[in-house]
Each structure stands twice: as C-alpha cells, then as structure tokens.
Design goal:
Layout: H1 2-39
Organism: Streptosporangium album
Keywords: Coiled coil
Protein name: Prefoldin subunit 5
C-alpha cells in the first residue's frame, strides 16, 4: 500500500513538472508567433 501511495505522489509530481514545462513551451511559441507577425511588412493598399 505504501509503495502505491509513493508511486501516486511521484506521478503527481511528474504531472506538475510536465504541465509547467508545457506552459513554458506554449508561452514561448506564442511569443515567437507574435514576433513573426510584427516583423511582417504592411500590406500594400
């Protein structure tokens, strides 16, 4: 029973770490996309 409880704690910690890493990657991707949009030249009118 203790092994299972420890395994659950380990998996929860891993989940938290992966969610934080995913949030960082998503923010980085948004920033890069925003920068690319700003670097575009204006459309001709």
């Amino acid at each position: 029973m203790r092994r299972l409880q420890q395994r659950i704690r380990d998996l929860e910690a891993e989940l938290t770490r992966l969610q934080a890493q995913n949030d960082e990657l998503a923010a980085s991707t948004r920033d890069e996309a925003f920068n690319r949009l700003q670097d575009r030249e204006p459309a001709l009118t």
